[in-house]
């Protein structure tokens, strides 16, 4: 059974401009998130990502549909039951949301105070969490004495304080530099692997999804327009919005204007070969071209790796006898996608 399940969920708000009209921030969304996975939700600003998260932890009520968390329909729960349910869901934020007037240790302890945990037990739990996130020496420091990455580690420790089963990360790396982002994503991966916590990552950065998630949903205008395994969405995106996201981290088939530039710099026929895990390898293609006495030069593209599975597009400039090139392309095209630029 999924640990989070949304069925036909819509969240509407009054339109700010049209009297009596409504805006659907979430529009008829159905989604299952499996226990123990890292699930990515990606979309541009205004796509509805953050609203969806607020429905999962019931900070916003749904307009229509149902949201189940760990088998319980939370859409009809009273506030007391919702508070109990929220102990099962940790949350980390883009801007950290730490109390600047409290020490690191007290920030982490805050949800434990709210939950009524005894002082001695709180102290043990805070020490354990500081060690887990690599900040054992920072318990008495204050947030303004920390780097951005350290602040987010405190945020993660605080989110883990009540031993949640689900962790919601809303743009948790957007305020960080690339190196710190890599460190924080590594910590989240460790949270998932070692603690078995289900993580929902909300982001507009496809590189974050590639680094940590196993499945992804792409959102646009409040709807899920594509979902599936990260490898499948990256290697073969079906929706134009998905293709735009993938293009930010994966070079695909060159656009016509790029082909014009390539032709100005390289002689020969411009041909793109597309590879997916399990297809004929790059070396097989190169061997086939060499066997046909076709000269080739890599001019665009690259091969990517997602958790040990490779895919990508290589665009080559091919030079030689046209009949030989045609024959080699027919042979290669029997096993992989081959596109020659017009």
TrEMBL record:
* Entry protein name: Methionine ABC transporter ATP-binding protein
Gene Ontology MF term list: ATP binding
Cell membrane as a keyword? yes
Q: Which SUPFAM superfamilies match?
A: ACT-like, P-loop containing nucleoside triphosphate hydrolases
Q: What SMART domains would the database entry show?
A: AAA, NIL
Q: PANTHER family from the entry? A: AMINO ACID IMPORT ATP-BINDING PROTEIN, METHIONINE IMPORT ATP-BINDING PROTEIN METN
Domain ABC transporter spans what residues? 4-246
- Keywords, in A-Z order: Amino-acid transport, ATP-binding, Cell membrane, Membrane, Nucleotide-binding, Translocase, Transport
What the entry lists under PROSITE patterns is as follows: ABC_TRANSPORTER_1, ABC_TRANSPORTER_2
On whether Membrane is a keyword of this UniProt record, the answer is yes
Organism domain of life: Bacteria
Q: Which CDD domains match?
A: ABC_MetN_methionine_transporter
List the InterPro entries. Answer: AAA+_ATPase (IPR003593), ABC_transporter-like_ATP-bd (IPR003439), ABC_transporter-like_CS (IPR017871), ACT-like_dom_sf (IPR045865), MetN_ABC (IPR041701), MetN_ABC_transporter-like (IPR050086), NIL_domain (IPR018449), P-loop_NTPase (IPR027417)
Provide the leader sequence positions. none
């Amino acid at each position: 059974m999924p640990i989070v399940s949304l069925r036909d969920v819509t969240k509407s708000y009054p339109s700010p401009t049209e009297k009596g009209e409504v805006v659907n921030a979430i529009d008829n969304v159905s989604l299952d998130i499996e226990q123990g996975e890292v699930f990515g939700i990606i979309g541009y600003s205004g796509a509805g990502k953050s609203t969806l998260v607020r429905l999962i932890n019931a900070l916003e009520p749904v307009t229509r549909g149902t949201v189940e968390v760990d088998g319980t329909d939370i859409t009809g729960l009273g506030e007391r039951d919702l508070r109990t349910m929220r102990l099962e869901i940790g949350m980390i934020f883009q801007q950290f949301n730490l109390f600047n007037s409290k020490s690191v240790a007290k920030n982490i302890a805050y949800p434990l105070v709210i939950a009524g945990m005894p002082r001695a037990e709180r102290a043990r739990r805070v020490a354990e969490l500081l060690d887990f996130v690599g900040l054992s020496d920072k318990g008495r420091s204050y947030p303004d004495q920390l780097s951005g990455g350290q602040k987010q580690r405190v945020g993660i420790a605080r989110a883990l304080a009540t031993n949640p089963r689900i962790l919601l990360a809303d743009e948790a790396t957007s305020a960080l530099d690339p190196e710190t982002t890599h460190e924080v994503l590594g910590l989240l991966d460790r949270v998932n692997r070692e603690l078995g916590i289900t993580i929902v990552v909300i982001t507009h950065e496809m590189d974050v999804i590639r680094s940590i998630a196993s499945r992804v949903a792409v959102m646009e205008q409040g709807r899920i327009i594509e979902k599936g395994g990260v490898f499948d969405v990256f290697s073969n995106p079906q929706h134009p919005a998905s293709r735009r996201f993938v293009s930010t981290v994966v070079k695909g088939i060159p656009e016509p204007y790029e082909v014009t530039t390539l032709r100005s710099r390289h002689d020969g026929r411009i041909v793109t070969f597309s590879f997916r895990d399990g297809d004929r390898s790059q070396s097989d293609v190169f061997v086939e071209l060499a066997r046909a006495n076709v000269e080739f030069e890599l001019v665009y593209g690259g091969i990517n790796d997602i958790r040990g599975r490779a895919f990508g597009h290589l665009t080559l400039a091919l030079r030689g006898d046209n009949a030989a090139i045609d024959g080699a392309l027919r042979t290669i095209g029997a096993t992989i996608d081959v596109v020659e630029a017009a």
